């Protein structure tokens, strides 16, 4: 196996509160995506809704995956004032959240 060469993935699983409308969710997603344009170490954001048929989602409905070049870049993103401001509003709209950061590893077979 070949360990990651600096790249870090930031995975956020979310379940929005029942009272949050689809329009509000869409605005949160647009705000999250816009962080890529503002915070240099954040290289990309992908997101989607749970479509699993296994029913192992534990109530999480949305997945957000951000890519950073280094752990230091992720730390810079987390501390960035624009991220802090966004996160305060975003997190207050969530009923559940789970965050995992990892360095992708390639399996050579």
Automatic annotation (TrEMBL):
SMART domains: Dabb
Subunit-level organization: Homodimer.
GO process annotations (BP): pollen tube adhesion
Protein name per UniProt: Stress-response A/B barrel domain-containing protein
Domain (Stress-response A/B barrel): residue spans on this chain: 8-102
Superkingdom: Eukaryota
PANTHER family: PTHR33178, STRESS-RESPONSE A_B BARREL DOMAIN-CONTAINING PROTEIN
PROSITE patterns: S_R_A_B_BARREL (PS51502)
Entries under Gene3D superfamilies matching the protein: 3.30.70.100
């Amino acid at each position: 196996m070949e360990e990651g060469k600096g790249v870090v993935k930031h995975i956020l699983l979310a379940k929005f509160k029942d009272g949050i409308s689809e329009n509000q969710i869409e605005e949160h997603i647009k705000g999250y995506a816009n962080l890529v344009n503002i915070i240099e170490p954040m290289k990309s954001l992908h997101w989607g809704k749970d479509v699993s048929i296994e029913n192992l989602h534990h109530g999480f409905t949305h997945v957000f995956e951000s890519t950073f070049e280094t752990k230091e870049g992720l730390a810079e993103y987390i501390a960035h004032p624009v991220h802090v401001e966004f996160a305060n509003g975003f997190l207050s709209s969530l009923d559940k959240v789970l965050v995992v950061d990892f360095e992708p590893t390639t399996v050579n077979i």
